[in-house]
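Input/output pair, single chain:
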Amino acid sequence: MKSQDIVILLKLASLEQDEQDEQHGLRHPRRDIRHEDPFSVRGLESSLGISKTEVNASIKRSISSGLAIKDHDSGRAKPNRRNLRNFIVHGLKFVFPARPGAMMRGVPTAFAAPSLKKLLMSAGEYIYVWPFAKGKDMGQSVDPLFKSVPEAALKDDRLYEYLALIDAIRLGNQREAGLAAEQISERFLGK
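Output:
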């Protein structure tokens, strides 16, 4: 398992939710508009900045580990939401730990991300950011799961929210991680 596997699975979950929203007549969050199928290896490469070879290998690893399944109708890989949620909540911080680093400019993550700010009030601590040259916020740097995460997150609001929640689990104390786990459960399983 590699860290980009989680990023790809979260993107697939985001795309699935976009499809469901479209079927229900709801508008999408901001999304990259391209001509290729966003679920295709080429589409994932374009939106995530991860090579086609690595996307393909990642999907195979995810299916092999049970974190993804092949859809019988479309033939596309899709996240096994229950298994992915369990891995994120119970294992991710041990397999891909996050350590706050130096103060840098970047993209806010964890509970400093725009969609999560209102969920938890900070006691004036520094925010966490993914280092990114075009970032506008200053905070303690945290290495993202994959180097292209800041740019990919800025293209897809839902993916950004998922990645920020994951960082809240990787970085947070028990209360913060518990709140993030509840939010992940709600988004993935409707609980």
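DSSP finds eight helices and five strands in the chain. The helical segments are 3-23, 41-48, 52-65, 81-90, 92-95, 149-155, 157-171, 174-189.
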